[in-house]
Amino acid sequence: MKHQDLINACHQEWHTYTQHEFIEQLAKGTLASACYLHYLKQDFLFLKQYARAHALAIYKADSLADMRTALASVTALLASEINHHVDYCSNWGLTESDLEAEDEDFGTVAYTRYVMDAGMKGNIVDLYVALAPCSIGYAEIGRNLAADARTKRQGNPFESWIKLYSGDQFQQSVMQSSKQIDKLLADIDCQSQRGQGLIKIFRTATQMEITFWQQALNAISKADG
């Protein structure tokens, strides 16, 4: 079993996630600023929980090698990725205090706690499968947007987002993490009870990603109200 088998088993959900209207509007440069600001604030809150999930992976790891891999992810998130996100948000008029003061939207709560629950109830494989749609999906979205001639690059206010997730650094990082997941999945049969259980986790997490995009789009109606 490999991570691609998880994607193939959840084809419809995966397509809705990676081709969501939020992404379509972002690619065209037409996404409302209220929606994007909501996304940026919720993504900051998501990243904090994402770091906690990777910290849980250290506890769940059986080998020292897996512990080191999880520690590297935690360090990268806390020392680099979250700081980069805060700096990026400053370009949109958001301070770190603004981000910290934001309440978690329902979709953010549901998604992040689901990931933690999957890890707490299961082992490191369950945890990484629950985490997988985020990084693997963003990498696919980045590649798709960069390769699509319809994506507006010149004068698109979201060009830096497209550039980040289509860039070599992010793509290489996800490739390495995907290899790690494939290694953990190697001895599992897709059709086995264990395999089907992991597919269910992956599908649910993918559905949570869809909800995460949608709650950002819904922010425009809240702003109008």
Give a short summary of the structure.
The protein is mostly helical.
Enter the CATH topology name: Heme Oxygenase, Chain A
| SSE string | HHHHHHHHHHHH
Strand residue content: under 5%
Give the overall shape, derived from the CA principal axes: globular
Unreliable spans: none
* Total number of domains: 1
CATH level-four homologous superfamily name: Heme oxygenase-like
Average the pLDDT over all residues and give the rounded result. Answer: 95
Report the helical percentage: over 70%
Q: What's the CATH C level?
A: Mainly Alpha
Using the CA coordinates, give the radius of gyration.
17 Å
Distance between the termini: 47 Å
Number of E-type strands? 0
DSSP summary: helix tally: 12
Mind describing the biggest β-sheet?
A: none
> Which class best fits the helix and strand makeup?
mainly alpha
- Going by CATH, the architecture would be Up-down Bundle
Architecture overview:
- The longest helix has 28 residues, at about 35-60.
- The model has no long low-confidence stretch (mean pLDDT about 95).
- The protein is an all-alpha fold and about 220 residues long.
- Helix 2 packs parallel to helix 11 (about 195-215) and helix 4 (about 35-60) runs antiparallel to helix 5.
- The protein has a single domain, classed as Heme oxygenase-like (Heme Oxygenase, Chain A, Up-down Bundle), CATH 1.20.910.
- Helices cover about 80% and strands about 0% of the residues.
Task: Name its key features.
single chain; mainly alpha; Heme Oxygenase, Chain A; 225 residues
Tell me the layout of helices and strands:
Layout: H1 3-9, H2 11-18, H3 21-28, H4 33-60, H5 64-90, H6 96-101, H7 106-121, H8 124-147, H9 159-166, H10 168-185, H11 193-217, H12 219-224
Helix pairs in contact: 1-11, 2-11, 4-5, 4-7, 4-8, 4-11, 7-8, 7-11, 8-9, 8-10, 8-11
